[in-house]
Design brief:
The complex is a heterodimer. Chain A is an alpha+beta fold. Chain A is built from 8 helices and 7 strands, in the order H-H-H-H-H-H-E-H-E-E-E-E-E-E-H. Chain A is extended and about 65 Å long. By secondary structure, chain B is mainly alpha-helical. The chains are: A alpha+beta, B mainly alpha.
Chain lengths: 257, 176
């Protein structure tokens, strides 16, 4: 297109995304620009072909059935926090009755372990996904004020945003992600060649110190502070993750004061 | 309680199964992979249904489907998720005698042209053209800024047009 008008404007017009005034301005331009008219004609011809080509892939009936069977065979999960009373529960039970532990508490602990594994899988998946081209940050900024303002419009909870560039962890930006079906904020840090995702979400559980784990070669560390749960993930060494965790905990206590 | 949740899920989420399947099928460009991924995404959505408070169910579900699809791609077909459009490769692969023979069929022509696009471009096209999502909804589903949605959409359309033009050229050359 040799017309020097912003291409995004043409597409926004085509998709009905312009305000009434901008659309009128664009129509004024259109009446005088054969390039834009040609481009619009080409675009609507493609749209027409797409509509008529019946390319929509409807789900097969067998899939619908499988899913209905699937949801009838399991209840929606009520999510304990991954830190929730794992040890406390087992320890208290141990004091009560050995026999009781064997047939009643062991399955509870097992369930917690399943939950842990699932949590780790989801967190590592979210980390892997973020490494795909163009997916790591929705807002690229090392400026905590910009990121705070951006998150303010995206998530319903507030959390401290800090750049630890002087400590070797440079803030890259942030995005909003979904982990275990809930909206989480993700801060991205880089240290040398390593990328760190810090997922943050609101929790009802009380504060808890850090618990760490490993899955598929990725390390994660999870902690709770001030009704927020944090989980940092990276393929860096566990000690690097712990350093970042300490920096983050420190910064949130400074904010709280 | 459990039956209530299930009924609510079936009433609110299940009607969007076609949209979920269509999106997965076009991101993965494969129906049988899409069945697995959609099933996994739907069950995941059901498990975490209590994490969904209010808002747009379809956008919430499509976000989960999309994430599940990309996770699947990352695990199974790492090579294919490049953002680059390798024109040379795609021109070669689509110009087999077989593909030219069926190029006359508009539906096949479009399908093949779409398959030459990177998943991320197919995805925005599907959301816009088939699901009728607004830019804002697409931005929400794909967790990308509005500006990126606009530029992906315009690049996707341009690549689709040029891929279709190439097909038409191939067809004309074959007839000579």
């Amino acid at each position: 297109m040799s017309c020097d008008l912003d291409n995004a404007l043409l597409h926004s017009y085509f998709d009905g995304e312009l305000s009434v005034i901008s659309a009128a301005e664009f129509q004024y331009h259109l009446a005088r620009c054969s390039d834009c008219i040609d481009e619009l004609a080409a675009m609507s011809s493609v749209r027409g072909s797409l509509k008529h080509a019946r390319l929509y892939e409807s789900a097969p009936a067998s899939l619908r059935l499988k899913i209905r069977v699937g949801i009838h065979s399991r209840a929606p999960q009520t999510r304990p926090s991954p830190l929730l009373g794992r040890r406390g529960l087992a320890a208290a039970a141990a004091i009560v009755l050995v026999a009781l532990i064997l047939w009643r508490v062991v399955p509870v602990v097992r369930k917690e372990e399943d939950y842990q594994a699932e949590f780790a899988a989801e967190i590592v998946d979210a980390h892997l996904r973020s490494l795909l081209p163009g997916q790591i940050t929705a807002v690229n900024s090392a400026d905590p004020a910009i990121l705070t303002a951006w998150f303010d419009s995206k998530v319903k909870f507030a959390f401290p945003v800090r750049n630890f560039a002087s400590n070797g962890f440079a803030l890259q930006g942030g995005r909003v992600d979904i982990v275990q079906g809930r909206t989480v904020a993700a801060l991205v840090y880089r240290s040398r060649d390593q990328v760190f995702n810090v997922f943050i979400w609101r929790t009802r559980e009380s504060d808890d110190s850090a618990h760490a784990g490993e899955r598929q070669g990725y390390q994660w560390i999870d902690w709770r502070k001030d009704r927020l749960e944090f989980c940092a993930v990276s393929d860096a060494a566990p000690s690097d993750l712990q350093t970042l965790q300490r920096l983050l905990t420190l910064s949130s206590s400074i904010t709280a004061e | 309680m459990e039956a209530e949740d299930r009924a609510r899920f079936e009433q609110l989420v299940l009607p969007h199964l076609d949209a979920a399947f269509n999106l997965a099928a076009w991101i993965l460009s494969n129906r049988s992979d899409a069945e697995d991924v959609t099933q996994e995404a739907m069950l995941r959505a059901y498990r975490f249904f209590d994490g969904f408070y209010c808002g747009d169910v379809r956008a919430w579900l499509l976000q989960i489907v999309r994430n599940t699809s990309y996770t699947w791609l990352e695990k199974n077909r790492r090579m294919h998720i490049t953002d680059e459009f390798n024109e040379e490769l795609h021109t070669q692969s689509s110009a087999t005698p077989e593909s030219i023979a069926i190029a006359g069929d508009d539906r096949e022509r479009l399908r093949q042209a779409l398959e030459t696009l990177p998943p991320r471009f197919r995805e925005v096209l599907m959301l816009r053209e088939f699901e009728g999502c607004s830019y804002k909804e697409i931005a929400e589903i794909t967790s990308t800024p509005l500006g990126t949605v606009m530029s992906s959409l315009s690049r996707a359309r341009r690549q689709l047009q040029s891929a279709m033009a190439k097909h038409a050229e191939g067809e004309a050359a074959h007839e000579l």
